Amino acid sequence: IFFGTSSGWRNETLDFSSYAGNTIQIRFVFGANMDYNDGNWQIDDVALVAQVSAWEITSIEFEATTSDGPWNWTFHDVDIYMTASADTAFIGNGEWEKTEMMLVKENYSFSVFSPDWWSIDLDAPFYLPEGLSLHIKIEKEDTVSSDPIYNRWGCVYTPDYQCRRVSDDTADPTYLNANNYLPVMLLNTTTGQIGISSSTDNRSAAPMNSYYIYSDFEGIYSPTYLGLNGNDDWTHGGTNDDWQFGEPLFVPNIDPALGPANGNSIAGTDLSVDGYYNDNEFAWLISPAYAYPDTVPTRVTLRLDRCIRMAPGDEGVVLVGFSDDTTPPTEATDWLLLRSYPENQTSWATEDIDMTGEFQDAESDNPNYYFLRFVLVSNLTNTRGGWNLDNIQVFGD
What we know:
Elements: E1 54-67, E2 73-85, E3 102-112, E4 117-129, E5 133-141, E6 151-157, E7 163-168, E8 177-179, E9 181-183, E10 185-189, E11 192-195, E12 201-203, E13 214-221, E14 235-239, E15 243-246, E16 266-269, E17 282-286, E18 290-291, E19 300-306, E20 315-323, E21 335-341, E22 349-354, H1 356-362, E23 369-377, E24 388-396
Antiparallel strand pairs: 1-4, 1-6, 1-10, 2-3, 2-5, 5-13, 6-9, 6-12, 7-8, 7-13, 10-11, 14-17, 15-16, 16-24, 17-23, 18-23, 19-22, 19-24, 20-21, 20-23
C-alpha cells in the first residue's frame, strides 16, 4: 500500500515468493477521498522476475553414423521446438502441441557430409531448468531434396519410451509412434557440454529422416540421460571411507586432470584432502535403484569413464546387485563381480563392461531393481589416487 506522493518516478519491488507454484493475477487499485485531488498514479515497466538455476542451451549436436548412399545429406525446412517438464518418458503414441513449446530454430537447412557429430545453432537460447527433462520436437518438410536413401543416426536403447517418430511422403504427420531408440544428442551450453555422447545402435527415422518428405521426431531427454543427476541419491560408506564428489585438487600427479567430458565434477576417493586414499580402506560407492527391465535386452552394457590409480596390493572392483525394492543388497554374496582393477592407470579412458550374463541369471528371481557398486580395498602400506569416475551409463540393445 502506497500513500502520499513519490516526488517523481521510482522503482518499487514486491516479494511474491510466498505464491511460488501458484497462478497469480496482479491488480492495481487507486483510491481517493472526497477532500482533495492532486495528480494521478502512473505505472510503467511492470515485470515479474524469478531467479531460476538453468542450463543456457545455445546449440545441439546429433551423430551421423552410416549411409546407404553418398554422404550428401541436406535437410530443408527444418523446425525445432523445445520445452521442459518433469516427465521422463512417453505414456503412448500421439503428438505434442507445438504452440506450448518454444520455437528455437525455424526453416533451417541442415547438411551432413560424413559420419561425425553435426551441430545446429539455435536462433535463440533455450533455458533448461535444473532437475527437469528436455523435450525436443523436430519437424522436416523437405520438398527440395528428399532422397530415397536411408541415412542413419546414433541412438541408444531406452527401456521406457523416450522417443516418438513418424515419416510420410504425402502430408505432415499428426500422430507419432512411441519408440525405444532415442537419438544421442549433445547440448552446448554457456557453461559446458552435456548430453549423451555414446551410441549403441543406428536408426534412420530420427531425428530427421532423409528417405521421406515429411518426418517428425519428439524426444524426452531426462536429467539421467543428459548426465545431470550428478551425485543425487548415490551413497557411500565403509571402513575409512573417503569417497567424494567434485573436482580433484591434486592433479595431474595424484589424480588425473579433468577433460571436456568431465565438466567440473566427478566421483572419486579423496579428491580434496591430499588426493591419496586411506590405508586399510574398504569403502564403497553405491548407485540409486534403477528399474530392472521387463525384458532383458540381448546385451546389457555398463559404460563409464574412469582412471583408477592403485598401489601394489590394493584393488578397485565394480559389482552389480539386484533387489525386490529400492534398498540395495546388504549381503556380500548378493553382489556380483563385474571387473577388478589392480592396476595404476595414467589417464582417463571410456570402458564398456558386459553385464548381460548377470542380468540374464537374475531374470529367474524377477527382481524389480538393480544397483551398481564401486569399491576400493587397500592394505596397510602405500596408497595412490584411487578411483576417478564419471559419465556412468547403462545400455541395452
